[in-house]
Amino acid sequence: MATRTRDLTNQVNGVAAEFSTLEPYFPGTLEVYLNGVRQRRDIFFSETGASTFATTEAPRAGDALAAQFEVEGPGDVLIFPTVVPSGIDPARS
């Protein structure tokens, strides 16, 4: 299993309460974040399908919405900047 994190903010319009992760996740692994705050399952959201979930109320336009979940296969590749003793990454100069 691998963890995926997806920014779903582009699906927020102030009216929609149904959202898609665009890929199937393992049931029970979905975590939803509204404006960076983790929301409670069955209070704010519920899983409605293999790649969908519904919120109890529509997030407001301008709100940030993200989902984290487990999938089969490799996880996201995290890229971190190179840190050197001088504090300057010569590859980025």
Helices and strands in order:
Blueprint (H helix, E strand, L loop, with lengths): L1 E6 L10 E3 L10 E4 L2 E2 L6 E3 L4 E4 L9 E7 L22
Antiparallel strand pairs: 1-7, 2-6, 3-4, 3-7, 5-6
What does this structure look like?
With 93 residues, the protein is mostly beta strands. It has one domain. The chain has strands at residues 2-7, 18-20, 31-34, 37-38, 45-47, 52-55, 65-71. It is globular, with a radius of gyration of 17 Å.
Low-confidence stretches: none
Please tell me the overall pLDDT.
86
User: How much helix, percentage-wise, in residues?
Assistant: under 10%
**How many structural domains can be distinguished in the coordinates?**
1
Strand segment tally:
7
% residues in beta strands: 25-35%
Helix/sheet category: mainly beta
Main sheet overview: 4 strands, antiparallel
H/E element sequence: EEEEEEE
Q: Give the N-to-C terminal Cα separation.
A: 37 Å
**What would the principal axes of the Cα set say about the shape?**
globular
Radius of gyration over C-alpha positions, nearest whole angstrom: 17 Å
> If helices are DSSP runs of H or I spanning 4 or more residues, what is the number of helices?
0
Strand order of the largest sheet: 1-7-3-4
